[in-house]
Amino acid sequence: MACTVARDALSPSAEEYLTWLAVEQGRARNTLSAYRRDLATFERFLAETGRSVEDADAAAVEEHLARRRAEGLGPASVARSLAAVRGLYRFRVEEGLAVVDPTSDVAALSLARRLPKALDEPSVIALLESAPGDDPSSRRDRALLELLYGTGMRVSEAAGLSLADLGSDTGLVRVLGKGNKERLVPVGRHAAAALDRWLSPAGRQSFAPRRWARRGDAEAVFLNSRGGRLTRQGMWGVLKKRARAVGLEDQVHPHVLRHSCATHMLSHGADIRVVQELLGHVSIATTQAYTKVTTQHLRAAYEQAHPRAGAARGH
Description:
This protein is mainly α.
């Protein structure tokens, strides 16, 4: 008989699996949180249908996925849910907690690979110049936008930056990426100049409180107006505000400057391995998605400009 699973409780093997992902695999906190939610939902489904993790079969897994689709979950989220459940059962088999993996008979979910959405170069310039003021907020916002575009780092990585990560002499910034993997990223002259203006007494120091609420705030590169570390949600707010000011609010998303950085570098002839290292991609296949974007742009420009490539032209 299956035991009842509390709303936020997980089975012992699921807890062990998440611990293994964190300790042995170095998975990011956001990934672990998402997997925890997915596994909790799966185990609640099993309990409601009189089953448990130990006696679930392929039909149970497929039924669970079908319910998630019926609840309106998108294809990517359903695929992640399957990945979490599949990972749990593979872990159970490898650890000797089970003999059979019920997910081995569940077909993988195919997802149409979405091409990264990037701004064109004039739009990026307009966005970067959307904070022209000399007040502390404008200095901070310009430095943030220049850094995101100049380095291609994720918004969450920028939110985690501390002053010690900025190399004053090397022109490099230390970035802590997914899975707590560090990489060194060069900072271009425009981003460096904007950072210098923000880190001057007329910039960051204007937001510094008399007494820091948390030690991490005192070390943060980017602060909010209350003297706390600017979170990734706060950075997304900055991006939306500045995009709205130049009429780009419908074209921005949290990683738009990261995608634009990669796309523009490849368009200007950068080696794909260099871009992979810059962005912190584990697999070159992830970076290759940007080559498809640049190829599309190349094809469109070719068909528009070449006299014998596009639609028939009048004589």
